[in-house]
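Hi Y.,

Following your request, here is the sequence exactly as I used it, all 209 residues.
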Amino acid sequence: MEANGHSAHEPAGSAPPSRRMQLLDAAIRVIAAHGLRGLTHRAVQQEAGLPHGSVTYYFKTRDQLVFGVIDRITELERAQAGQVADELLRAMAVQPFRPDYPRIAELTHAWWSSSRDRQVARYELQLAGTREPRIDAAMRKAAAEFRKLTELVALATGSPNAADDGEVLLTYIDGLMFHFLVETPENPEFLETGIRLAIESLRSVPRTG
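Below is the corresponding structure, written out as tokens. Let me know if you'd prefer a different format.
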């Protein structure tokens, strides 16, 4: 596979980026529906409803398409995860410590509900990374951005070891997300309870040293 970066994916004199994004969004839906094995130029073309050759114009190889999808998922997740993290950090900055958990849960629910295909595709790529080192490296690089956000949240709780606590928080949230996608909990307070437990557990851990 080729390295990340738009220059590796777009030919010189390419058409407006909106078409490229349209194709990548279609690719995400294909992966969610058929797995990474189902990701072909033809499948993406059909999903996007575009003429023959549209995908090849932007992504000469399947490898370029896969890395383009990773970039696109990261871009979209950065925007929505950032909104939730910003809301949480603002709430946690107020004394006394009293985050608006219902509001944060509402934002998280809207994020995950509107991005189900994207989350399924992300898990598919993570699993593929266990067999393909280059996909693994790209996914780890993408995850590093979100680890920074959870480290900031850990710091806001008073954690003296934000790196470790941020990693734990990220893992916890990822587990909540997986359960949300697979089980579709009927209890509307599911996310609020989960987020509250995650944050409050960081604050309750005894600090030494």
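The mean pLDDT is 87.

Thanks again,
Q.
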